[in-house]
């Protein structure tokens, strides 16, 4: 046991340490690479490393190269030492910190987004929440696919088609009896797998007033849901986090799908770091004659090189990175590319359209008299000796204390019919249906590119009909509110109607693209925010919270009318809960889609996309678990295509 524990610590403390044992696979110069590769994966993040692991395992005689912009390094998470406040800005080399253009409907405020920039990608830096969407979300994905008769299950993206890959993508370990009893954790082990080196478990810590909020929601009539990973997500849930059950440290793709793999001698698995894919080039000029040549550039020296790929290129650079690579390669909206002087290779208006993210205002309060909780409170982190002790506990083995909690593992998920009256629900659904069917108004709240392209409008109308079905269901959550402590509750809108864009920076094309979130540009989103905000505010009226002397801070007790609440929403909405998706959507080309159900780029041979960009609409979940499952399913499709060749 001691030997096993020591090995786990070595793998989890820092990837830079693990690198010493796998240097023969880690490349830093283009001249270290082979002349050609069978598969080339663009991006060493959550999806890219999953796909590379599975391909090198299935095809030991074929070489796979992963090209990663960042490096192998310890990537501090949203709540790792030395931070003392969750989500503090850091300016770390291991992440992109991006801001959108102003959103006029939200007082010209901007969205702030963090994306991973190291081996492991966003799985190495995110809030560690490891939940799945409702089964109705993924059934809606299938509703937006090419409904080919007799489509095989392996190519279906509904809950039934994706659930096996959710199970394969994670190893869940139940809490010890002592921890489970202390916090009343519940789970259903049958909904998870146990053979993959990506781990999920429950943290060994909760803040002192955590159960005050849980009690308040129970008093408000929310039903306890023993397991929210089985597709049925309505209610009050415990959600596991991306945490190793022995070390209580983060489990991410850089460890489970790279370091753990190559340390066992996977010599056909190559990784080049500190390199950027600048373009994908079809040498003949014919995108139907693939796969493309891959042009890479050293981030440090600026030197470029071309890599020949014999089988496929898999684009997994993330929602923003994959979009930028495509647009630099001449794959995207023809009018946009021509304006930048980029030759059009494939006219795909959906590239960079359809941007979605979870957003919403927050409810905050304070206690009139600080309660005397026996366990620590977040404000204790402002005490230097306590914060130092918390950091030391995190760096012990196994880790303990506040830092093991990451973001949270306690959530409510509530559907729209369970938050509003039948009359109000009918009005909201009528608005959505009207927007979907009235050709003259569908484009009214959309980015300009939609007005000039009938395929994008057709796809958006199909999305609206799918969203209307979700909002009508009493089993499909519309609201998420995560809580770790009784001072803040977000009111996250899970299925926005607004759509934004991601566009190549014409002045600096190798830099991150321009993000136009256009949050709340569709007024129905404001209607939904209002319903959600009023519902979340109910927690403060619960008996438990009143007994603790809760006093509302934001919005204040004087904010009561719809007009005052909407004013608060427009001024205080968080535009990104760090779940961007959908900019290279998996939908038919005639609906503005970018990839097929096999994740092949429409009109571009030898090229697939596997990351959160292929989601057609946002699921009611934080994204990492879904990205892992999509990558596992995508890898199986690729393996099926190439087996026997």
Describe the fold and architecture.
By secondary structure, this protein is of the alpha/beta class. The chain has a domain at 23-72 and 128-174 and 252-356 and 581-642: FAD/NAD(P)-binding domain. The chain has 18 helices and 24 strands. Strands 1, 2, 3, 10, 11, 12, 13 and 24 form an 8-stranded mixed sheet that branches. The radius of gyration is 24 Å and the shape is globular. The two termini are 43 Å apart. FAD binds at residues 126-129, 277. Residues 37-358 form the Glucose-methanol-choline oxidoreductase N-terminal domain.
Summarize the topology.
Elements: H1 2-13, H2 15-18, E1 26-27, E2 36-42, H3 46-58, E3 64-67, E4 95-99, E5 112-116, H4 135-143, H5 159-168, E6 171-172, H6 177-183, E7 199-200, H7 210-219, E8 224-225, E9 235-238, H8 253-262, E10 269-272, E11 275-281, E12 293-298, E13 304-315, H9 318-328, E14 331-332, H10 334-339, E15 346-347, E16 362-367, H11 384-394, E17 410-415, H12 422-437, H13 448-451, H14 454-472, E18 477-482, E19 488-490, E20 492-493, E21 501-503, E22 514-516, H15 523-537, H16 543-547, E23 550-554, H17 562-572, E24 607-609, H18 624-642
Parallel strand pairs: 1-10, 2-3, 2-13, 3-10, 6-7, 8-9, 13-24, 14-15
Antiparallel strand pairs: 4-5, 9-17, 11-12, 12-13, 16-19, 16-23, 17-18, 18-20, 21-22
Number-wise, the strands total 24
Q: Characterize the overall form.
A: globular
CATH topology title of the domain at 23-72 and 128-174 and 252-356 and 581-642:
FAD/NAD(P)-binding domain
As residue ranges, the low-confidence spans are 1-22
Provide the β-strand percentage band: 15-25%
Q: Provide the residue-averaged pLDDT.
A: 93
What is the helix fraction of residues, given as a range? 25-40%
Characterize the main sheet.
Answer: 8 strands, mixed
Q: Radius of gyration from the CA trace?
A: 24 Å
Q: According to CATH, what is the class of the domain at 23-72 and 128-174 and 252-356 and 581-642?
A: Alpha Beta
Could you state the oligomeric state of the chains shown?
A: single chain
Distance between the termini: 43 Å
Number of discrete helical segments = 18
Structural class: alpha/beta
